Amino acid sequence: MSKRLDPRNWASWKPFGIGERKPNNYLELWKAFRSVKGNRRYAWRILTKGTCDGCALGTRGMRDWTMDEIHLCNIRLRLLKLNTMPAMDPAVLADAAAAARLSSAQLRDLGRLPYPMLRRRGEPGFTRIGWDEALDLAAERLRGARLGTYLTSRGVPNENYFAAQKAVRALGTNSVDNAARICHSPSTVALKQTIGAAATTCSYTDWIGSDLIVFIGSNPSNNQPVAMKYLYHAKKSGTRIVMLNAYREPGMDRYWVPSNAESALFGTKITDHFFPVNIGGDIGFLNGVLKHLVERDLVDKKFIDEHTAGFEDVRASVAEQSWEELEALSGATREQMAELAEMLGAARSAVLVWSMGITQHTYGERNVRAIVNLALARGFVGRDNCGLMPIRGHSGVQGGAEMGAYATGLPGGLPITPANASRFSEAWGFEVPDQPGLTATDMIDAAHAGELDVLISSGGNFLEVLPDPRYCREALSRLKMRVHIDIVPSSQMLADCDGDVLLLPAQTRYEMEGGVTETSTERRVIFSPEVPGPRVGEAWPEWKIFTELAARTRPELADLIRYPGGTAQIRREIEEAVPFYQGIAALKEFGDNVQYGGRHLCAEGRFPTPDGLGRFTVVDPPALQRPDGSFMVATRRGKQFNSMIHERRDGFNGATRDAVLISPYDADRLGLADGTEVELSGAAGRFTGRVLRAPLTPGNLQIHWPEGNVLLDVTRRSPAARIPDYNAVVTLRRTAP
Ligand SMILES: Nc1nc2c(c(=O)[nH]1)N[C@H]1C(S)=C(S)[C@@H](COP(=O)(O)OP(=O)(O)OC[C@H]3O[C@@H](n4cnc5c(=O)[nH]c(N)nc54)[C@H](O)[C@@H]3O)O[C@H]1N2
Ligand SMILES: Nc1nc2c(c(=O)[nH]1)N[C@H]1C(S)=C(S)[C@@H](COP(=O)(O)OP(=O)(O)OC[C@H]3O[C@@H](n4cnc5c(=O)[nH]c(N)nc54)[C@H](O)[C@@H]3O)O[C@H]1N2
Ligand code: SF4
Ligand SMILES: [Mo]
Fold first, then answer.
1. Dihedral of the CA atoms 142, 143, 148, 149 (nearest 10)?
2. Are residues 558 and 644 in the same domain?
3. Tens of pLDDT, residues 571-589
4. Separation of 73 CA from ligand 3 center, angstroms?
5. Which numbered atom of ligand 2 lies nearest the CA of 636?
6. Residue 636 C-alpha to ligand 1 middle, in angstroms?
7. DSSP class per residue in 503-544
């Protein structure tokens, strides 16, 4: 790795980029650390001894496995506040209507939930009750009830997911799901079908020294900030970086890595080649690239012959797809597609990275298959500096589905079939249902239709993470009971309900006795020990809440469900249930970790499919959806962690929460100056915001979520993964002069 300064990669000659529009990372770090209201010494111990509970990059304390430098970012510091704040005054929840007038941020600022609380049907608010009473009440309602369970939030570790899914299955249903459903479920489906493994095939170290990294619908500058440091080093070693996006993300163009002297001072030009696409247009572009690779004979014939199946069909199908069709869908030109094809053709190694710009469409699975086709065509899988990399979202997404907290999968990601169900029935000693359960999105429909009795939501917030909040609110109100397990109060707890609402206080991952594990994007199962410090009220670990609920509902199974040995016992059971998590049972101290599958999955081109071959799939371009004069709008992340908003203004582009990002071309065409108030209307609703010019592909808009969720159509979901379409077709109208 070169230590020399390299001005060609500098973003600006102005020291520290003074005067440039960009976030001030040092100020951000300082502001975030100041926001820690609780015990600062405890906060420091969490930083130095814990595994970060933010994104899925993964840490041990403030170190990682990719480079020998400090690993810390402002997301982690912002989340620290949640982990260290003292208990709230529960009297605030005595008047639920008044509490509901607080913003979600104000609700969180109240502090941690200290005790179980109950709001009986018709009562104005919540009152404190004991754990026994709370659990017995829930158990009584759970008997024979139609149950749906959703677990998520950035904090949830593997042990909680595993124990919870087993407990729910003991209650006779597979309707247990987690945030992976509304995040990377299309990647899981498509990767399993094509390469036989539903995870990133390479490691972060493979970025450094790769010839090419292609980011498709992914913005690590905001969402995995420390990854930018890896990219700085990659660029130093000669890696070229390509971005395929509907928006030329400013943070991906230029980034000032705070922990690196050269980059902190002069910034780093990150993206070498930017290719604009329409929102939803990736298949047009990716198939176009493949068409060029075939026509120019740039495919890796040896790899295709020896390690893959289905290439001929794909070759024939892209040959039939016309350039005009691919250009119209993608919004890009065939020359641009050729440019990327040439780069891929010349590269000896490449990593293809994707994220929410790819998955959150009704055809998210097809988008992912189109990416896999490219990687297989060039043999970019299973060797150093190559790989398929769906950057996982938060630190609970990779493990959630692998632990089986998934309506369509058992532990280890096994599909729910009678044979697999009976395997687990035998292992666990009770009958595991053999039909898939309700996915997160389907649970909301069932509740809306009056076909669900009880919803248990651990973390999460359906009012803010799913399309159409009004529909979700109606659905939440129609249940006979809701159980919210959380560390802080949230807006969905306060939604009205035809039945009782129970709040159960959870511990954070740092409070759990015996320590816990998470799985990072690069499949590293990382131990995070219990961190000594203040403890809040009567909060329990989530695994214990779930197992106790199930044990009291079905006392005859209690001994099969409870874990008197705590998290260590759960890890032993995970090792039995999920063979590829071999080694998890031995993790017990700070720094312990095991990367399942090793540095590469599909090493040497041997795929974990029945015949050992990787599969090409014919990917037909989706039909064009946009009538003349309308726009496609996507929901984006600003300064927030999912539904938790941290700042009104995004330092990267200056966008406030109500910004409507629009291309200068469209803004000029429509005579819209920055700040003009406009209304977007679509099939599901209306949104009012203010124009902000930004380098978007013309015809496309972006707004922040959760505010923008009012525009999203709840009926639009992908067929297999059941991910909602987090985009909408809208018209735009100026509302004020
Ligand atoms: N600070 C912070 N960090 C986070 C999170 C957070 O909320 N805040 N969330 C975590 C989670 S759960 C996740 S899943 C990840 C999300 O990480 P990302 O997926 O990087 O998140 P988004 O901000 O949604 O970025 C989506 C990108 O896709 C682009 N895009 C939108 N539509 C399309 C399209 O159709 N095609 C293409 N090619 N591009 C498109 C957008 O312009 C944007 O750059 O981040 C994780 N880390
Ligand atoms: N419009 C739109 N919607 C989206 C997306 C999008 O791009 N656009 N992205 C989607 C994606 S990628 C994801 S992953 C989901 C995220 O969806 P979720 O993971 O469901 O949502 P979060 O906002 O992370 O959940 C935050 C809630 O968890 C609770 N919480 C915080 N910490 C803890 C803890 O330690 N334990 C427990 N039990 N609870 C805690 C808080 O009360 C908070 O209300 O949202 C999806 N929704
Ligand atoms: S980049 Fe991700 S894992 Fe690293 S400190 Fe930030 S939030 Fe945590
Ligand atoms: Mo996510």
1. 50
2. no
3. 999 999 999 999 999 999 9
4. 6
5. 7
6. 7
7. EEEB--GGG-TT-EEEE-TT-EEEEE----S---TT-B-HHH
Domain boundary among 391, 424, 450: 391
Q: Are strands 727-734 and 631-636 parallel, antiparallel or unpaired?
A: antiparallel
The kind and range of the H/E element at 215 are strand 212-216
DSSP classification of residue 460: -
Number of helices (H) and strands (E), helices first, in the chain? 28, 29
How far does residue 131's CA lie from ligand 2's centre (Å)? 26
Is residue 103 assigned to a domain? no
Q: Does ligand 1 come within 6 angstroms of the Cβ of 75?
A: yes
pLDDT in tens, 281-337: 999 999 999 999 999 999 999 999 999 999 999 999 999 999 999 999 999 999 999
The pick from 67, 71, 154, 255 for probing ligand 3's pocket by mutation, whose C-beta has the most ligand atoms within 8 angstroms, reads: 71
Chain centre distance of CA 384: 26
Closest CA to ligand 3's atom 7 = 54
What CATH number is attached to the domain comprising 158? 3.40.50.740
Residue 13 has pLDDT above 80, yes or no: no
- Cα-to-centroid distance, 397 and ligand 4 (Å): 7
359 with 246, same domain: the answer is yes
CA distance 577 to 564: 18
Do residue 581 and residue 663 come from a single domain? Answer: no
Confidence of residue 149 (pLDDT cuts 50, 70, 90): very high
Nearest atom in ligand 1 to 640's CA = 8
Whether residue 364 sits in one domain with residue 270: yes
Please check whether residues 374 and 430 belong to one and the same domain: no
Q: How many domains does the chain have?
A: 4
Same domain, 577 and 640: no
Confidence band of 39 (pLDDT split at 50, 70, 90): confident
Angle at 324 between CA 356 and CA 360, to 5 degrees: 10
* Domain containing residue 43: 7-84
**Sequential DSSP letters for 185-229:** HHHHHHHHHHHS--S-SS-GGGGTT-SEEEEES--HHHHSTTHHH
* Atom of ligand 1 at shortest range from CA of 279: 35
The pTM is what?
Answer: 0.96
Question: Distance from the CA of 58 to the center of ligand 3, in angstroms?
Answer: 7
